[in-house]
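Apologies for my clumsy wording, but can you show me some protein sequence, whichever is easiest, together with the matching structure tokens, please?
=====
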Amino acid sequence: MSKKKVLIISGSKSDELTAKLLKSFDNYSINYILIDFENFKLFFSLNKSSSNIKKNFSLKDLLDYIKQVDGKIKFKRDCIFLFEFRSGFSKNVAEYKLSLYVRKKKFQRFFYNRRSFNLVYFITDDFFGLNKSFPTNKIKSKINRKLFFSKISVVRDYKLKFDPLMKVILNKNYFMKNLMLYSKTIIYFFRYLHYSLLILIKKVFKKKSKKKIFFITPKQKNFFLVKTNSRFSKLNNLLPIISFLSIYYELTVCLHPKNQNSWFNSLLKFWGIKIVTSIYSKEARNLIDNSQAVLTLGSTSVVEALLSSKATLEIGKTPRVSQFHGGYNFLSEDNLTLNKIKFSIEKILNFKKKVTFKLPYFYSVYYPSFQNYNMKSFVKKIGTRSIVSNLEINYLKNFFFKELNVKNKYKSKLVKK
């Protein structure tokens, strides 16, 4: 590997996966610069130097730093950016802006999509697998299609076990929390009173559409929506959409489990809208199967809709997934109107072709193993990320060795370890 080749990693040493990956880079003398947006630190492995960075650290600041430490490093030629190589998810907006700029300038980069709770992890050259076409100068990794889908199917079925447990965890009564819940419900009821009246009129005249829409809603302050500066990171901004669509369609709203005991849930119940808790439940799967289309906002659960072979409309600042099949559509929230949403829904409802889940373009795929938690351990560990195993670290090391053309002696050293 060229001595000038440098990996630019956005992450933190406090993250288990990032820390283990950096340790492996140190063992094999791979040069890297760590940008830690959580602790506002910059670390260069070559000279072991660490410095503080400002909160809005930008690509220009990084360029200036690289010129300072080593003027021989050519930014576009020698630097490879790594995003989301961590066990958890980054909620830092500055990091997201940096990734957008890197993508716009077509710098060398890799994104690691490590979905929570063990699904399928993959490496791509775009944020959350958005790449629609694979670079012609890269060889596509041969991925076993049958294995890919079988792994996803196994995990989907496995997740069904935990829906009842979520109800146990969240079914707690606190006087002050309940008081705030009812207060918020009343406030939003009066704020959207005109929609409440429209819903009531629809019920009186029994104007029910036969078309069923399954709406997957995110949790409050969903990290992806917050990071992309989407207004739908606040649940109250979903209310006009829900109340409007419920007039025209038979609407089912799928809540995030953390929204189960919330003012949002209470208001929707008052409106008489059908609610299901958690996308990973038998009830939700049956409702998706019986729906004509799925609407989603910023949730990884869009994959559940795609796997159910349902025409899907996603709304947001940027898509959450690749365009997996012909039945998937994205609607930008910029200049968004309720009529635009209705028009887009009608468009996917008229999609006549068979919806099929196609394999996206990946550089590489890793299939993590998952543990059978019992109820007690699951309650204790709820919210944690998948375990970082040595197998996963070795997988990542091997990937980078291949990409960086590391000499065979280093590869053999890795195998021995």
